[in-house]
Specification:
Jelly Rolls, single chain, 6-stranded antiparallel beta sheet, elongated, 8 helices
Length: 222
């Protein structure tokens, strides 16, 4: 099992006391691919830590369109915002069979009542996660589509890409990630393939010119 928490986790700066409280409260869960762990609007009673597998986090717009916010992977946690919001703000679906640790709110609160200082740490980490989610939603709203797609491909390559730059993602899924139509994404990808920036295959994209995509992702004016 990978050491937890990893450097990129919101728990990376947590005190040993908070980590011990989370570890005591955690219960192992196995979830098959396709399983819905919770849905947007459900009552929230637990958060999860991923030991293996992949979890898709998505929301439904008022118009009924699914927007995929993130793919969570080993060492990350999800569902913690709902503990304080009272209900789930997103849907969590298992995209690759997963081994998880579930931490129930009641069990964690028992430790926090014994050590109130842990509550302040947890609130700080929730604020950090909310800033990340806010930034993602801002990008969907204000950045041009090519910039959003480039940033999302680079992000997915870092998280779930193979060693040779292949990302197992369909154009429909990429459209969900970018908050765009499949047709608009297909047109953008076709242009990049013509320039030699990417290669396309069924259900996958391979980055062949990372520098070009990085430049596009970093330039919100293009």
């Amino acid at each position: 099992m990978q050491a937890w928490p990893p450097e990129q986790s919101v728990f990376a700066a947590a005190s040993p006391e908070l980590l011990a409280a989370v570890t005591r409260a955690a219960v192992g869960v196995a979830a098959p691919a396709g399983a819905a762990l919770f849905s947007q609007g459900d009552a929230a009673d637990a958060f999860y830590i991923i030991d293996d597998g992949e979890i898709e986090i998505s929301v439904m717009s008022q118009g009924g369109r699914k927007l995929t916010l993130e793919i969570m992977t080993r060492g990350e946690l999800f569902g913690e915002i709902g503990l304080f919001a009272g209900s789930r703000t997103a849907t969590a679906t298992v995209s690759v069979a997963a081994r998880l640790r579930r931490v129930r709110r009641s069990d964690l609160m028992a430790s926090i009542r014994e050590e109130p200082a842990l509550a302040l740490q947890f609130i700080d980490m929730l604020c950090a996660r909310l800033r990340v989610v806010g930034r993602m939603l801002e990008e969907r709203t204000f950045l041009p589509l090519p910039t959003r797609i480039a940033g999302r491909l680079l992000h997915l390559e870092r998280k779930v890409g193979s060693a040779d730059g292949v990302i197992a993602v369909s154009q429909a899924d990429l459209a969900d990630f970018a908050g765009a139509t499949r047709e608009a994404v297909a047109k953008t990808l076709a242009g990049w393939r013509a320039r030699g920036w990417i290669a396309l295959r069924r259900g996958a994209v391979r980055i062949t010119d990372r520098a070009a995509l990085e430049m596009l992702a970093d330039n919100a004016d293009d």
